Amino acid sequence: MRHPSVTSARAAYVSLALVVAAGAAACGPKDNDANGSSGDSTPHKGGTLTVLNSDPQTDFDPARLYTSGGGNVPSLVFRTLTTRNRADGAAGTKVVPDLATDTGRPSKNATVWTYTLKKGLKYEDGTAITSADIKYGIERSFAPELSGGAPYLRDWLVGAADYQGPYKDKKGLSAIETPDDRTIVFHLDKPEGEFPFLATQTQFTPVPQAKDTGTKYEEHPVSSGPYKVVKNENDGEHLVLERNKYWSAAVDDQRKAYPDTIDVQSGLDSSVINQRLSASQGTDAAAVTTDTNLGPAELAKVTGDKELAARVGTGHFGYTNYIAFNPKVKPFDNPKVRQAISYAVDRSSVINAAGGSALAEPATTFLPNQKSFGYTPYDLFPAGDTGNAAKAKELLKEAGYPNGLTVTLTHDNADNFKTSPEIATAIQDALKKAGITVKLQGLEDNNYSDTVHSVKTEPGFFLAAWGADWPSGGPFLAPIFDGRQIVKDGANFNASQLNDASVNAEIDAINKLTDLDAAAQRWGALDKKIGAQALTVPLFHPVYKRLVGKDIKNVVISDWTGVLDISQVAVK
């Protein structure tokens, strides 16, 4: 998963480069009040918002994007059946209606979900948005040439596993019915109480079939949101959005759409982005970033400057950095060895390696420490702040290693403050105190990802990270611990290769619940149950600190994305 530029959780999920974060307490107004320094703080319509990013907004097609809650820049153009609540902190973890009148009406067993579209919805050309357009938009996301989006629909929809999209199969998906222009019905293979969360993904964006240009659609997708694409250069490196005159706030209470124009400039070095935002000269005074954090050195400089500090927004996203074990590799098949390492870890040194306490918070649970995930506090192998070497040595002796042992820790060579050499070295130093000699194996980014995500090459001991596609325990625990999601001939994320019938059954039972608060409690209990097996060592949850230009107003940062919500920003 990439970061909260985040087009998406599973981006990290899929590339494990996710860079979004979760925090202990929902960040309230004190953390989220980053604002410009100009006199009038009231947001007004008008002006141009500049977005300075490192990663280009590639594949700007709703079928191909992998987003969390609809994404940031994408959600300005693509509306979906539901969306995330555009509010600060924990309030922003709620799913709310977007194109639909509600978040969906489930059948008794949550295998059928029905939506009704709002009246008066229009595209950028003034034509009406229909339920058939949403059905078609979903169907085209199954086309191999438009792959890249979230994989859930293929797994969840009845008869969708082998569907190849409308270009090859004109019949479409019978699992999606459109009895009239405003009604759409989904038939699922199994109960899914969190379907409203999935309906925030960009694959639920309406696409008029007559305007579909296949792989070229990304050059000018037809807007259903407050802005339309007027320029897309070098596959999203430079994206210019202007107002969609047919969009109406009367049928969209989530997006504020204050600026007249949004100019997205990408391919920039992260240090350059932060320098430009700090200086706030010319158009950079009305600029933000959706993908670049302040690093430790930059944060230290900013903290000492009151004016700059007032322009820093703090965010948390559901993300955990952890040590992964593969119990099929010795000596990690021995639970006492895994427990010993759990006790030996020095989280304070790991957090320092991740940039310090302002950028990382200690984790002893796999689930992020937010209520929406079902966070249930536990610390089954208490290491304190600096590790419990004595307890680790005791367990190693019980495991048959009275004189310690030597292991290899695989990490990414990328300087990402999550799975990188700094983190690996901190772990190496801590385990040495417990009599565990750690040899470090650094791999280049792509090689690292390919190696740790293949059951054929997966090491026994490596650094990993995971972020959620939406703020719930489901997309956090299931991909990592559901035995039925072990992939033997592709990208596998169940590193422990756990296939516990009781865990699988509980995942199924929770998925039947449409009461998300009740489901959250069950996810938290399941997290603790799995945690007792010491299959991972949770290390920390990242915290996101980002600068905004001095003329930026109305900064909103939710616990869903952890980053500034571009749909709320004003520049005047």
Question: What is the structure about, briefly put?
Answer:
InterPro entries: Peptide/Ni-bd (IPR030678), SBP_5 (IPR039424), SBP_5_dom (IPR000914). With 572 residues, this protein is of the alpha+beta class.
Going across the biggest sheet, name each strand in turn.
8-9-10-1-11
Roughly what is the average pLDDT, rounded to an integer? 92
- Helix amount, in percent? 10-25%
Question: What is the alpha-carbon Rg in Å?
Answer: 23 Å
Shape: globular
Helix segment count?
17
Structural class: alpha+beta
Strand content: 15-25%
Number of E strands: 19
- Calculate the terminal CA-CA distance, rounded to whole Å: 34 Å
Oligomer: single chain
In the predicted model, the low-confidence regions spanning at least 5 consecutive residues are: 1-33
**What about the largest sheet?**
5 strands, mixed
Description:
The structure is a single chain. The chain has 572 residues and is of the alpha+beta class. 24% of the residues lie in helices and 17% in strands. The longest helix has 16 residues. Keywords: Signal. This is ABC transporter substrate-binding protein.
Topology, element by element:
Layout: H1 9-15, H2 29-32, E1 48-52, H3 74-77, E2 82-84, E3 95-97, E4 105-106, E5 112-116, H4 131-140, H5 152-156, E6 176-180, E7 183-187, H6 195-198, E8 227-233, E9 238-243, E10 261-265, H7 270-279, E11 287-288, H8 296-303, H9 306-309, E12 312-315, E13 319-325, H10 335-344, H11 347-353, E14 360-362, H12 389-398, E15 405-412, H13 421-432, E16 436-443, H14 445-452, E17 461-467, H15 474-481, H16 501-511, H17 516-531, E18 536-542, E19 544-547
Parallel strand pairs: 1-10, 1-11, 15-16
Antiparallel strand pairs: 2-3, 4-5, 5-7, 6-7, 8-9, 9-10, 12-19, 13-17, 13-18, 14-18
Keywords: Signal
InterPro entries: Peptide/Ni-bd, SBP_5, SBP_5_dom
Protein name: ABC transporter substrate-binding protein
